[in-house]
Design a protein that fits this description.
Keywords: Cytoplasm, RNA-binding. This is Clustered mitochondria protein homolog. It is found in: Cytoplasm. One of its GO terms (biological process) is mitochondrion organization. GO terms for molecular function: RNA binding. The chain is of the alpha+beta class and 1391 residues long. The protein has 48 helices and 27 strands. The strands form 7 sheets. A 5-stranded mixed sheet has the order 4-3-7-5-6, with no helix packed on it. Strands 8-9-10-11-12 form a 5-stranded antiparallel sheet. It is globular, with a radius of gyration of 33 Å.
């Protein structure tokens, strides 16, 4: 999309950085020519954006005042030029265009502008300065037609001729515009709008709002909080009663000759009925009345080139309503109008369920559309589209943008079509292509996509009755050794490789038993591995080597694998199309030199070794991939590689036939290779090399590992690219066929060396990676909040999920981590149990079956039989119907047999004990984890219920559930069952590289360069993926950080608001990243002294955290501290103390009394009491802080000394107060006494409510706890990722100056910096009067560095920000928080 039309600006007011932020800010993305120029920061020209489209929507509130265009932009830098546009109706607007914009981009922008959003069929005419005109084709670039840089050019929209396709598209567009269902308004936007309207009505309502806000309720009653997650749907604005296809359609042949294409019946709000003719030139009202077509134009001459234009003529109410719809859309944030190509599904649905109303248009669309995404008769050739896009040139940035955009769009469209097709397959709407085969082997082709099933072999592994045949339905065993089969088929049919199905000539001759033996490849694990392998080869991007588009869809207990189809593979005998690999488990291995050269090139990038294997006849064959992979030439002469289940080597910790698909993760391979390379190239000692590799691993994970964690840490030191690794250490290459049943050629020494390398990688995982991961968990360097973020953290470290049980045994001493890991294992085990129930449930029983399972899982269901485990179910249910089901399999079709229809409910006899028995058995088998008996109680948590629903795709009603009752759920509470999808959508590597470079610049303190790099990355992402992408959200977060560093809090809010909207749409309303986005917004708003708005956002943060992790999590405690400081800033000390005390109780419970984060709470309480002039209590709490820090960090640590300085400060102030009392300053003394009594009363209440709190305060030193096991890392306070980057730069500069080694990974004791943030923050509030003990605060007016510390006060940034960042903060006053407190203290001291 290009520029911004002047006529389409949002109505939000733009204000300066020091004033309230506009509630609906436009969404500007500063183009590469604009860089921030904070005072005292040298301005350098940003890198050029070569080609491409940049979104520039002008808004004064978005760009910092200090941002100035560079006078001499870099060569080739992107510039925007104003081009006027004349619409079909004669209106004029102006676009900001770049010469590199394509015509299709310009049309997309016109589709989004309110003045032109309803024009869909037109030609663009370009008028140049010399008077010539050019008609623009969609895929032309403007620069190919004319030079718009010299000015004088204009565009004109000219009505084009409709055809049958374009007129239907026009009608669909009108229906879209009239519905607001596509508008996703964020709660943050609504809160800002409310705040803006309230400001005009009343001032000083802050106290009321603060009293109403009580986030602790969310912690106490998270089940009740379910009702608050979903915002009420926006009220629809009705413009017309109905618009439907007329029953006069299709037009008779004699009318087609006059241009009639379609007839439409319209009923207006006034009650008038019209029959409208859509012709090739226009829309007009005809004279039809009743049941006879009269095609003549009415006497009034009601005609227009668009349907909207015609409706505006015939209905005044439509005209008024349509204007309201456009105004509503314009008032929303522009990103809220953008549709996500890969939308996230919610596990909660509206309650009460909205009324389902008649909608003829909706009914039409559902009936007219075929089963899929395309209209009848229009099927896309997905494979040809995908491979053609991959063949696009990509030599320069502009070409890469066009190629990336095309690939992303085609892949997203494929995933959408695959999901709908898979649902059709499972619901038996699509017939198989091989109906005469047993159902075990049915395959499906729909919309040019190949579908087949994968088997849940993990669950079958613990099934009670293993029967290696088709008779046992879902519970048949797939664990038959493939070596026992004769005449092995080309590949297993269930595995969805339609290709190989026709590759083997003997496939049809193989017995069902032989085919079943092969079906072990079609397990869940192999499907997952195949997807990972496909992604790996995609990223390797070898010219001439092609992959298939692939998606995995889990729905109704089935796993369907969808793939694009290799051309010609389903027609005729293609036995000669196999060029590489084997279809019979290595008995015959094909080889082709040309194919091998391409595979070998990919192997180098994937760290795979060329090696020799022996086929069944003992002939040596040289391969660069696994034996079972297949290289096939399609009828399009392209070389395809598939069956990529083992792109990484086997996991040597899981050896054996039953673990044949247990492979190492690509992240671990990259990390291991990098560690080995470092060891060899630097000749370091082994421990040093391992330590560096650990730091490397740790630093790759932090941001994603814990939702907002690690803005700089997350990817700053990510593992080197494969190419870099190749250069570093080409000799570290793995043989993928070791520890398999295939025979390896070569000397025994070579084979032993290959096996030893794989074993070393497995040992590296067990002895280096996992202990480091556990250490980071204990020190809170990594802090996952829910199952998804835990999985992401494991994967980013290269740890497979099968190690969950092992890691759980290493973190038993931390309650929140034990709960998180055990809950994840339980939920993953329960997922397989409920899938088995869903596979056996007929259509009419799905809702009741899910509700019954949830009641068994959460509640207490007692049945007549106690043998409720799924194992018994499997052996019992089929007994009366074994014969009728003998041909059935796991496909889901078996539930449609007459026999199963007569069966009683397959779930009714299940009990809680039986379900939990199955869960425990699965957890022990899969994860080697003994589920404790008390786990059933821990399952009664909203966070566990949420995790399970998300993994299975269940949507439940958002009402308050009594999770302690025996049956908390009813069948009507189950609102939907949605497919859960895994896909291979490509990522934008150029944008990620720019983000990495931007983080380096930010760490160095060159904010202007960082800003330009992040802006360029965001611009790239917008052009390739659109704004609705998690990488775009990361860009916005970094841009907010840079702007905050530069002192532009208002600009930071605009960027943070973008991140919040994208996270809500791409990750989910209650994802931990979304929660932290709200927390960051709150702290930014607080920086502008909008405490009321900040607290509302904090309320949302606590609500989301309570749903994601439950109340017991260190992040929740850190958020409570932030809330307390906001109340403290608003002089509401009673509430602030209550929140601080709650945070202290949580930290002591979760982390232990000796953890550094507990010391942070004590320090915050000391500061709060200091603000109330209760210095005795301050001294008491600061003494606790000092004792903990001295014990954990040592008395000589700077943080311990800082605490000692605080103690001296409080003692000095107490002496001053006593001196004032002795001098007889009665007024002040009485005021202090009153404050003291108020605080004392509250303090007594706290102590009475929590006796442990009193004991903790009485202790002179904290008794030894488990803190020592947690490492020196300091708990991170989550929230705004601000101030952090510049701090890192300073720390590194000073370290480098002292000759210290500076590492990219998180330092072992970065806790000190987090504590220092708190110390400094509070220092700004309370230390103005004692300059002898503390350093003066420096304001953030663009100063690059803070001065040296005075008297031991740290120079780090002053703000307890929800420090998700891994960077250490060093120097910027927190907006509002520190400054306001400092002002209050100064005024207090003066008085």
């Amino acid at each position: 999309m290009a520029g911004k039309s002047k006529g389409a600006k949002n109505k939000g007011k733009t204000q300066g950085a020091g004033q309230p932020v506009p509630s609906e800010p436009e969404v500007p993305v500063t183009d590469g020519a604009e860089v921030i120029n904070p005072e005292n920061v040298e301005v350098s020209e940003p890198p050029a954006v070569e080609g491409g489209v940049t979104y520039v929507e002008k808004s004064d509130g978005d760009i910092p005042e200090s941002a100035q265009p560079a006078k001499k932009p870099a060569e080739g830098e992107l510039h925007l030029y104003p081009v006027p546009v004349r619409t079909q109706s004669g209106e004029k607007l102006e676009l900001q265009l770049s010469p590199g914009d394509s015509v299709i981009d310009v049309k997309q922008f016109l589709l989004d502008a309110p003045e032109t959003c309803f024009y869909t069929c037109y030609d663009l005419i370009l008028h140049t300065k010399d008077g010539s005109t050019h008609q623009l084709e969609d895929y032309n670039e403007i620069s190919e037609i004319a030079d718009i840089t010299s000015g004088g050019c204009s565009l004109e929209m000219v009505a084009a001729i409709y055809d049958e396709r374009s007129i239907r598209s026009h009608l669909r567009r009108v229906r879209e515009l009239l519905s607001l269902s596509s508008l996703h308004v964020s709660l943050s936007t609504s809160l800002a709008l409310q705040q803006e309207s309230a400001q005009g009505k009343s001032a000083g309502s802050e106290k009321t709002v603060i009293q109403e806000f009580d986030g602790l309720n969310f912690m106490e009653d998270s089940a009740g909080a379910l009702t608050n997650l979903l915002a009420s749907a926006p009220a629809e604005i009705k413009c017309v009663e109905s618009i439907v296809f007329s029953s006069f359609n299709p037009p008779p042949s004699y009318r087609r000759l006059h241009g009639d294409l379609i007839y439409i019946d319209v009923v207006t709000l006034e009650g008038n009925k019209y029959c409208i003719t859509g012709s090739s030139k226009s829309f007009y009202v005809n004279c039809s009345n009743g049941s006879i077509l009269d095609p003549k134009l009415t006497k009034q001459g009601l005609e227009a080139s668009t349907l909207v234009g015609l409706l505006q003529k015939i209905s005044a109410k439509f005209k008024k309503g349509f204007r309201e719809v456009l105004d509503r859309r314009a008032s929303a944030h522009p990103f809220e109008n953008v549709q996500s190509l890969l939308p996230v599904t919610s596990w909660l649905g509206a309650h009460p369920v909205p009324e389902h109303r008649r909608d003829a248009a909706r009914a039409e669309e559902s009936v007219v559309l075929s089963y899929g995404t395309e209209l009848i008769g229009m099927q896309r050739d997905w494979n040809e589209e995908l491979q053609s896009c991959r063949e696009f040139p990509h030599g320069n940035p502009q070409e890469r943008i066009l190629r990336g955009r095309a690939l992303y769009k085609v892949t997203c469209d494929f995933v959408d079509a695959a999901v709908k097709g898979a649902v059709g397959v499972i619901n038996r709407c699509i017939p198989p292509i091989n109906p005469t085969d047993p159902e075990c082997f049915h395959m499906y082709v729909h919309n040019n996509i190949f579908f087949s099933f994968a088997v849940d072999s993990d669950y079958e592994h613990i099934s009670k009755d293993h029967k290696p045949d088709c008779h046992n339905g879902p519970s048949r065993s797939t664990k038959v050794s493939s070596q026992d089969t004769e005449a092995k088929p080309d590949m297993n049919h269930t595995e969805s490789k339609g290709v190989s199905h026709s590759v083997s000539v003997n496939s049809s001759d193989a017995s069902p038993e032989a085919q079943i033996a092969d079906s072990e490849q079609a397990t869940y694990a192999s499907a997952n591995n195949d997807l990972k392998g496909t992604k790996a080869y995609q990223e390797a991007d070898i010219s001439g080597l092609y992959n298939l588009a692939m998606a995995i869809i889990d729905y109704r207990g089935h796993r369907v694998v969808a793939q694009s189809i290799i051309p010609g593979i389903l027609q005729g005998d293609k036995s000669d199309s196999l060029l590489y690999g084997s279809v019979d488990n290595g008995k015959k291995i094909s080889w082709n030199e040309n194919f091998h050269s391409k595979v070998a090139e990919a192997a180098k990038r994937l760290h795979l070794k060329e090696h020799v294997v022996l086929d069944g006849s003992g002939n040596p064959v040289k391969l660069a991939a696994t034996v079972e992979c297949k290289g096939i030439v399609g009828s399009d002469d392209r070389h395809y590689i598939l069956d990529l289940m083992r792109v990484t080597p086997r996991d040597s910790n899981y050896i054996g036939q039953e673990h044949r698909f247990c492979v190492l993760r690509p992240e671990l391979v990259a990390s291991f290779v990098e560690a080995e390379s470092t060891k060899q190239s630097t000749r370091l000692k082994v421990p040093d090399a391992l330590e560096e590799s650990n730091d490397q691993i740790a630093s790759t994970s932090d941001a994603k590992a814990s939702s907002v964690e690690g803005d700089d840490k997350s990817e700053e030191a990510s593992a080197p690219t494969r190419e870099e690794n190749d250069n570093l250490s080409p000799e570290i290459l793995f043989n993928p066929n070791v520890f398999t049943e295939y025979k390896l050629a070569g000397s025994p020494e070579e084979i032993a060396a290959d096996e030893e390398l794989v074993k070393r990688a497995g040992t590296y995982l067990l002895e280096i990676v996992m202990p480091k991961f556990v250490q980071d968990l204990c020190s809170l360097d990594i802090s996952p909040m829910d199952g998804q973020t835990l999985t992401d953290a494991l994967h980013l470290h290269g740890i497979n999920v099968r190690y969950l049980g092992k890691i759980a045994g290493m973190i038993k001493h931390l309650p929140h981590l034990w709960d998180l890991f055990s809950a994840e294992i339980i939920v993953r085990s329960a997922k397989h149990v409920i899938k088995e129930i869903l596979r056996q449930s007929p259509d009419h029983d799905i809702g009741p079956a899910i509700a019954h399972f949830l009641n068994c899982f959460v509640g207490k269901v007692l049945g007549a039989s106690t043998k409720g485990s799924l194992g018994h179910t499997q052996s019992k249910t089929p007994k009366g119907h074994e014969n009728s089901q003998s041909q059935k399999s796991t496909k889901g079709q078996k539930i449609n047999t007459p026999a199963s229809r007569k069966c009683p409910s397959t779930y009714s006899h299940l009990t809680s004990d039986g379900i939990w028995s199955s869960i425990k058995e699965f957890a022990k088998s899969k994860y080697q984890f003994e589920v404790p008996d008390e786990a059933r109680l821990s399952a009664k948590r909203v966070s566990v219920l949420r995790n399970l629903c998300q993994k299975v795709g269940v949507t439940i009603a958002a009402r308050k559930y009594n999770l302690d009752s025996s049956t908390p759920f009813e069948a009507l509470d189950i609102l939907n069952l949605q497919p859960v999808v895994k896909h291979s959508v490509p990522t934008c590597t150029d944008a990620r590289n720019l983000m990495e470079a931007g983080k380096v610049r930010m760490a160095e303190g060159t904010l202007n360069e960082a800003y330009a790099l992040f802006s360029e990355a965001f611009s790239l992402l917008q052009q390739i993926t659109g704004p609705m992408h998690k990488d775009a959200a990361n860009c916005c977060r970094y841009l907010a950080m840079v702007l905050y560093h530069a002192g532009d809090t208002a600009g930071a809010i605009v960027q943070q608001h973008r991140e919040l909207i994208i996270n809500e749409r791409c990750l989910g309303l209650d994802h931990p990243d979304t929660a932290h986005s709200y927390g960051n917004m709150a702290l930014f708003y607080h920086g502008l002294n909008q405490t009321e708005l900040a607290l509302r956002h904090m309320s949302r943060t606590l609500l989301l955290l309570s749903l994601a992790s439950g109340p017991d999590h260190p992040d929740v405690a850190a958020t409570l501290i932030n809330v307390a400081m906001m109340y403290q800033d608003a002089s509401n000390m009673n509430t602030a103390l209550r929140y601080l005390q709650e945070a202290l109780m949580k930290n002591e419970k979760l982390l232990g009394p000796d953890h550094v984060q507990t010391a942070v709470c004590y320090h915050a309480l000391a500061i709060a009491f200091s603000c109330m002039s209760l210095y005795k209590l301050s001294i008491q709490h600061e003494k606790k802080t000092y004792d903990i820090l001295a014990k954990q960090l040592g008395e000589n640590d700077s943080r311990t000394k800082d605490s000692e300085n605080w103690l001296q400060t409080f003692k000095l102030r107490e002496e001053q107060v006593n001196a004032q009392k002795q001098k007889g300053q009665g007024a002040n003394a009485s005021d202090n006494a009153i404050n003291f009594l108020k605080a004392l009363n509250l303090y007594i209440l706290i102590v009475q409510a929590h006796p442990a709190f009193l004991q903790a305060m009485k202790a002179a030193a904290i008794q030894s706890g488990d803190g020592s096991a947690m490492g020196e890392g300091v708990p991170r306070l989550r929230g705004v990722d601000v101030r952090a980057a510049r701090a890192t730069a300073e720390a590194r500069k000073k370290a480098a100056a002292r000759g210290l080694n500076v590492r990219n990974g998180p330092a072992a004791n970065n806790a000190s910096d987090e504590l220092a943030q708190i110390l400094k923050l509070i220092n700004s509030a309370a230390s103005a009067s004692s300059t002898s003990a503390t350093a003066k605060t420096k304001e953030s007016e663009g100063q690059e560095e803070n001065g040296p510390a005075q008297n031991g006060t740290p120079t780090e940034a002053k703000g307890t920000i929800n420090d998700g960042s891994s960077v250490k903060s060093t120097g910027n006053t927190p907006a509002g928080l520190g400054a306001a407190l400092e002002k209050k203290q100064r005024s207090k001291q003066k008085s």
